[in-house]
Design goal:
Sodium/glucose cotransporter; mainly alpha; two-stranded antiparallel sheet; 2 domains; about 625 residues; globular
Length: about 625
């Protein structure tokens, strides 16, 4: 009861604050709706950018992936952090100097083409909707497990809240709401990390605890964790399992994809100048670093706690003994954790080995329960029958969705109820802050780039505001539907990684070449975007939704050059760059005023009479 009180307390308090901020920051013009009036302070914008950037993938899924992937999970830390540095130093100041509303706005004017603008809109929509699917899954995970609400209902509640500050406040409302959300999410992430670091290492600083000796063990945490999981048959936590090729390509795709993400780029349009964009980027890096340096510690502590707790669990006694982990049944009942008693001893066995429906979300057999109360998987209802005689009884008996580990960790560690409730509010803040930024990209792409700049150039500002709000409302509904569908997709961070791959291959080449190569023309841009979008989307879709591995083979054996769908965007980025440059050289050069404009935007503060300054 006390946990429910604290969970509802934190969620209602934070949601109420978001709505109040949105009402008080309501946009009164298209300038405020799209770019918050271009007058956001760099520090404030840095905090809002950090919230926009640290999505459910960062808050919920990244530590879960690192916890169970070990060394291989570091690709997300390296790729996302390095990518932000790339964006901040290479693109953001110049895009702000160009002075437009959106990424398609930049593409349309830089490449003097309505067709290029429309294709950029399509690319932005593909990236944004792919990204937002992951955020909504995170909302569903948090709501369904701690508020005893079905994931679908939880997603609907989250989208209603986003509706208020995205539709009413626009970018102005979203900016100040994201500042509040950053404070919530970073507090919610670090407080339990500090608690658990003290419990396991005696050091209150998680980043240092991660490097310290475990309490009463006299060995470093990493050594203790390696020992604990290798005794269960798992490879060492610090060992590499993926190929160097795939690690490189995933890291690079995440880095380059960051520099092409429309919802992050648009944040740099909200400050006054290119200098202010650089300053806000510096602040954002500082705010992001707090969570990203804490994540490896959270992941390691979580894996250690999970192994120690699950291995001492007698499932038959869960309902009868107070000291057994009730969290196990809570997550199991909501479909994010499963157990099958293969050897019939009534005890949960977590080993390295095959599990029914491994790597996939379990399909449960309705409300039917096994002999020991376990929730049964539909494809193998009779655990001890001949239907399942190919299962080794010493194999793994536990399925866990990586996305729950940050939310479950405080409960596993028996932290106070107010901390557990706070973590739920933090996860929701992370998911909704990024969802709001993505909704602004979708809304502005439809209302400004398609309607105002393409279909109805004589549209009044009042009419454009109306269309922008209607577009935002439509995007909210579409995002909610995607979120409901996303509950059956892979882990949040993997879904988000697909969005990065699409951004890397479709948008990054035309943005990069548009700034640094004045010879790049509209024909090259169109060819480049289409090449990157079609090839990357086709590869991801095939291997995630169509491909079925042959008996006795693994998917990676059929990947091109051993590159996974998460990393393929970097390979196709080079293809898109090559196609764009080749087509540009084979066709007519851009007009002289466009080439002069490209030279001018690389000199911050210089007056540009040759091309569009924007707003």
């Amino acid at each position: 009861m006390e946990l429910n009180f604290w969970t509802y307390f934190w969620v209602i308090l934070t949601f109420g604050a978001y709505v109040l901020i949105a009402i008080r920051s309501r946009a009164g013009s298209t300038n405020e709706f799209y770019v918050a009036g271009h007058d956001v302070h760099p520090t404030v914008n840095g905090m809002a950018t950090a919230a926009d950037w640290m999505s459910a993938a960062s808050f919920l899924s990244m530590a879960g992936l690192i916890a169970f992937m070990g060394y291989d999970g570091s690709v997300f830390l390296l790729g996302w952090t390095g990518g932000y540095v790339l964006l901040a130093l290479l693109l953001a100041p110049f895009l702000r100097e160009f002075g437009k509303f959106t990424v398609p706005d930049f593409v349309g004017d830089r490449y003097y083409s309505t067709t290029a603008r429309v294709i950029a809109v399509i690319c932005a929509l593909f990236v944004s909707f792919t990204y937002i699917a992951g955020q909504m899954k995170g909302v569903g995970v948090a709501f369904s497990s701690f508020l005893d609400v079905d994931a679908t209902i939880g997603i609907i509640i989250g989208m209603v809240i986003v509706f208020f500050y995205a539709v009413l406040g626009g970018m102005k409302g979203i900016t100040y709401t994201q500042v509040a959300q950053y404070c919530v999410l970073i507090f919610a992430y670090t407080v339990p990390a500090i608690y658990i670091s003290l419990i396991i290492t005696g050091n209150p600083i998680p980043q240092l605890g991660f490097l310290s000796d475990a309490k009463n063990a006299g060995v470093p945490i990493m050594e203790k964790l390696n020992t604990a999981i290798t005794e269960l048959g798992f490879p060492e936590y610090t060992a590499r399992k993926k190929s160097y090729t795939d690690i490189f390509f995933i890291t690079a795709a995440l880095m380059v994809g960051t520099a092409g993400l429309p919802h992050v780029i648009i944040r740099f349009f909200t400050v006054k100048s290119a200098q202010a964009a650089r300053m806000s980027a510096g602040w954002a890096l500082l705010f992001i670093a707090i969570l990203y340096t804490t994540a490896p510690a959270v992941a390691s502590f979580a894996r250690l706690n999970f192994v120690n707790t699950v291995e001492s669990t007698n499932y038959q006694a869960i309902e009868n003994e107070k000291n057994t982990p009730e969290w196990f049944k809570t997550w199991e009942n909501n479909g994010y954790l499963a157990w099958v008693d293969k050897n019939g001893d009534g005890k949960v066995q977590y080993r390295n080995g095959d599990l029914i429906a491994a790597q996939k979300k379990p399909i449960f057999d309705g409300d039917n329960r096994g002999e020991n109360g376990e929730r049964l998987l539909k494809i193998c209802t009779d655990i001890v029958s001949e239907k399942c005689n190919n299962i080794n009884e010493n194999d793994n008996e536990v399925y866990i969705d990586n996305d729950i580990i940050v939310l479950a960790n405080p409960t596993i560690a028996s932290l106070p109820d107010w901390v557990i409730g706070l973590v739920v509010a933090g996860g929701l803040a992370a998911a909704l802050s990024t969802a709001a930024g993505l909704l602004m990209v979708i809304s502005s792409a439809v209302s400004h780039d398609l309607c105002k700049r393409t279909l109805a150039p004589n549209m009044s500002e009042a009419r454009e505001m109306l269309v922008a709000r209607i577009s935002a409302a439509g995007a909210v509904i579409a995002a909610g539907l995607l979120g409901i569908f996303a509950t059956s997709l892979p882990f949040v961070a993997q879904v988000v990684a697909f969005a990065f791959g699409l951004a890397a291959a479709s948008l990054f080449p035309v943005i990069f070449l548009g700034i640094f190569w004045k010879r790049m023309n509209k024909e090259g841009a169109i060819a480049s975007m289409l090449t990157g979008l079609i090839t990357t989307f086709s590869y991801i879709y095939y291997f995630k939704f169509i491909y079925v591995p042959k008996a006795g083979t693994k998917p990676e054996e059929d990947w091109w050059f051993g590159i996974s769908p998460e990393g393929i965007g970097f390979l196709f980025m080079w293809l898109a760059l090559g196609v764009g440059v080749t087509v540009a050289l084979a066709t007519k050069a851009p007009p002289a005023h466009i080439q002069t404009l490209v030279e001018d935007i690389r000199v911050p503060g210089k007056r540009r009479p040759h091309g569009p300054k924007g707003v």
